[in-house]
Amino acid sequence: MDAVMTPTFTDGHWARLVAAGTPEDVEPGDYVFRSGQGGYDLIAVESGEIEIVRDALRWIGEAVITTVGAGEFAGELGILNGQSAFLSARVTKAGRVHRVTRDGLRELMSEDDELCDIILHALWARRESLRTGPAAMTLKFVGTTESSDFLALRRFAERIDLVHAAIALPPGDIEVLNTHGLTRDDLPVAFIQGEPIPRATPGVIAEHLGLSYQSQADEVVDLVVVGGGPAGLAAAIYGASEGLSTVLLDAVAPGGQAASTSRIENFLGFPFGVSGGDLIGQAVLQALKFGVRVYAPCEAVGLTQVGPDLLDVALSDGRIIRARSAIVTSGAAYRRLDLERWEDFERSGVYYAATPLELRQVQGKPVVVVGGANSAGQAALYLAAHGSPVHLVVRGDDLRARMSSYLADRLAEDPRVRVHTGSHIVGLDGDSTLESVRIDSAGDVDARGLFCFIGADPATSWLPAIDRDPEGFVRTGTDVAVQSVASWQTLGREPLPFETSAPRVFAAGDVRRGSMKRVAAAVGEGSSAVASVHRALAF
């Protein structure tokens, strides 16, 4: 790992790296970047030495993370995703450095595949190493174990691979807050560089870290992708790799429903299976490699055509992204059961994902999983494998009707999973946290977690002018209604594959009418939609 984090450059590689930068002579005590600084540069050290420092926080002194000498560079993954620096780089020996800006680095990486791979591996390896060291204290979350808001913060941070620490307090143990002048009402609290932010949300954290969308003067991007699931990530990666300036937005964090899947076993190229989180993590890294600008949480609330060649995507905070084309991959919103106290327990016992984050809340405790498709089956097996007795509640009479055979077979053979077919959940009970679930065919069963996988509704309410079917799924291509096609006559063409009733607006993945609700299919749709984008832009 050390060889990856601190690569040895050939003379040719080093010459190309420093040529992309601006030389600067430095003296001991100088800072080449400081924590909190936005848009900081990669620093290539020609001579001298720099130390990477976690600045002193309210409760702890500074810590030297590592040193960077001649022939090495300072920087980590935040240079690519736009995150403000969370460490400082201080000169300890006089010398000369070369500053490579974010744009300069992306241009260099796009032109030199070998150098790109070396730098990208180093940036990623450094980020992973920093996650478990003293640097993690630069972003610390504190909340109670039962809090869904605290879980949302942790999920956001892990989905976008933030270096952070999370302190989960038992519900009755909040005395530690007193030393910071905080109370239970302030939870969850985020400490950024030691400064507390009460009642923190992912959006607030993104704003503080420089991860929210910031437009440049008169900027027009080639492609905006709305939704960061498999379809959206594939569309963004293919678009950027084929020369389109690309922005990817997600209302929560990249991953969509795929990120909530504990294990995908039938995805091409992964004979031993892959977790949704790992698959999405690698896809996000790939997107950054090709220069995709990823923003989350960043919710699109409107899309307007402002001329024959331009679109405006309106964000929930009032900002506007102007683009030449858009691909809607906003996926679907999780369905909920219509039960009393459902909203109460959404904060302390109801989950819509089964990943290591949720597992920590229920490990070894009895749980109920509801749903009859692959995601429910994967969740049941995952939770059972980590010590939780599982009740799987399936509305239909045949487990194989909507679930892959290999999953149904494993569930039938697993003694830790009890399957209730032809059954419904009819009640929830508990004080401040979920304690039991009532199943109509089995009565009350102990449960410290209810994992809900009963499908989702298309997230298209923000697209009232787009042609949709009665269920809200977007029509595309030859499926677009006749009355909508009539408006295309002035363009001299009909909607292209994946194109909606609005010219240059495309849809892919779960949001599209007729799509196959599988990860591999979504990836294929997202990449295929980009081919139609190129054709539309050429008209």
Describe the structure.
The chain has 539 residues and is of the alpha/beta class. 27% of the residues lie in helices and 23% in strands. It has 15 helices and 30 strands. The protein is globular, with a radius of gyration of 25 Å.
Provide tags for this entry.
27% helix; 539 residues; alpha/beta; 5-stranded parallel β-sheet
Mean pLDDT score: 91
How many helical elements?
Answer: 15
Amount of beta strand: 15-25%
Low-pLDDT sequence parts: none
Helical content class: 25-40%
User: Rounded to an integer, what's the Rg over CA atoms?
Assistant: 25 Å
Shape: globular
Structural category: alpha/beta
Largest sheet: 5 strands, parallel
Number of strands: 30
Q: Can I get a quick summary?
A:
This protein is an alpha/beta fold and 539 residues long. It has 15 helices and 30 strands. It is globular, with a radius of gyration of 25 Å.
Topology of helices and strands:
Elements (H helix, E strand, L loop, with lengths): L1 H4 L5 H9 L2 E5 L4 E3 L8 E4 L3 E6 L8 E6 L3 E3 L3 H4 L6 E6 L1 E6 L1 H10 L1 H18 L8 E6 L3 H12 L5 E5 L19 E4 L2 E3 L4 H8 L13 E4 L3 H12 L4 E4 L26 H14 L3 E3 L4 E6 L5 E5 L4 E4 L2 E3 L3 E3 L7 H5 L3 E2 L4 H7 L4 E4 L3 H12 L4 E4 L11 H9 L3 E4 L4 E5 L6 E4 L3 E4 L2 E4 L3 E3 L23 H4 L19 E3 L11 H20 L1
Parallel strand pairs: 9-10, 13-14, 13-19, 14-15, 19-30, 21-28, 22-23, 22-28, 23-24
Antiparallel strand pairs: 1-8, 2-7, 3-6, 3-8, 4-5, 4-7, 9-11, 11-12, 16-17, 17-18, 20-29, 25-26, 26-27
Helix pairs in contact: 4-5, 8-9, 8-15, 12-13
